[in-house]
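Entry 14: structure prediction run for Diaminobutyrate--2-oxoglutarate transaminase. Input pasted below.
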Amino acid sequence: MSLAAVPVQAASGAPAAGEAILRRQRVRESAARTYARSFPIVPVRAHGMTVEGADGRRYLDCLSGAGTLALGHNHPVVLEAIRRTLDSGAPLHLLDLATAEKDDFTSALFESLPAEFAARARVHFCGPAGTDAVEAALKLMQTATGRSGALAFTGAYHGMTAGALALTGNVAVKEPLPSGGEVARLPYPYGYRCPFGVGGEAGADLAATYVERLLDDPSGGVVAPAAMILEAVQGEGGVVPAPDGWLRAMRRITAERGIPLIVDEVQTGVGRTGAMWAIEHSGIVPDAMVLSKAIGGSLPLAVVVYREDYDGWRPGAHTGTFRGNTLAMAAGAATLRHVAANGLVERAAVVGERMAARLRELAAELPVIGDVRGRGLMLGVELVDPAAEPDACGARPADPALAVRVREACLARGLIVELGGRHDAVLRLLPPLTITDEQVAAVLERLAAAIAAASTGGPTGGSANGSAGAPTVRGNR
Ligand SMILES: Cc1ncc(COP(=O)(O)O)c(C=O)c1O
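Run finished. Output tokens:
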């Protein structure tokens, strides 16, 4: 669909039916509903980066199912794989039995992984969500090491089930629940809001030194853990890329101490960061990788891939009913191959850099933009209060209220952008890897206009269903 067909107020729809659906959703679905609060729209059709709502409007989708839709909505390659599988009569649900589709997906997955890792890897198919694969990875390493605790980082997001939530940093979602798991929390190298008040490479070096010293301190309070888990770029934590040197330090520190390293690539995988897998930027080889989201080609699929030496599980050690989704495996294999064969990884790197450069120019014009960061097509714009005093690193306080107004102003301009970050003040851009140059221009134009409108205090142009004041805890975090 060309951008010419994506005016803000274009498509036909059924606004009244949409309103009724939204009304019923509000009274029938749980208070924990999340994105539905941020985006009170009823999508009826979607193609590529464009979502058409029942309100008759078209939106450019920069959320992409929280990074799931590497090829955008309903990509022909994905649809063809699904149709072919449906027409073949293959069983759609198969627990963990062997199928040609699973065999092919496993081949496509292993071909996409760094050769050194794939050469000695095993894969375990999990329940179809990232959080279940995180649980599986932790259990695997607990079984292999005979230890129970884990090392995880500030700002981490690993999922919503008990074990994964224990590894997650977000206090707001953890606070109401009984504490779970023994997790030592370590500082993630967040340059803009440096845990050591230093910033830059120096802050990352301190973060690495702190981890090393803490683990070696007999009175440091950290019992030998089953694993360390980290994201190479924190997504929900506010689009914070870890420096490559810090990642290499984590690999060295864990290897030297016999601590398995799990890298959670649920959000960063399949080209998103300008490498097929985010670990490739630093060249580290982890002991396990947790994969989900884009690997299913928009359908639910999650796996843990790990070094064969850790395969000490007994049969049934991590079972589950929905581990054999034939359609997801066909869609996932097609996606992995299409991304690799069509230069989409390289394009994500180039287009992401171009978008980041334009966003940095915008930051020079708009003082509410405190920081622009990211890798590939995983970009974050942190909004701050320009009138407040900066801290020692030059960072001003986050402005979550402004961020909500910007999200609303984006939606009013036909742009879907979600928030994230420690203070819910980071605009997160996760467009599909297939984004066209025309769409890049439209996204940046709409975003700039939305930030300008929202920060001057004028009307955001938001709809009556706007989400200002919605609770700050959303589903993916
Ligand atoms: C890095 C990371 N790990 C794990 C998860 C959990 O995945 P799911 O929502 O499929 O359970 C997410 C979800 O956003 C994520 O970003």
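Notes: The chain has two domains: 1-61+399-425+448-477, 77-341. Will compare against the previous run tomorrow.
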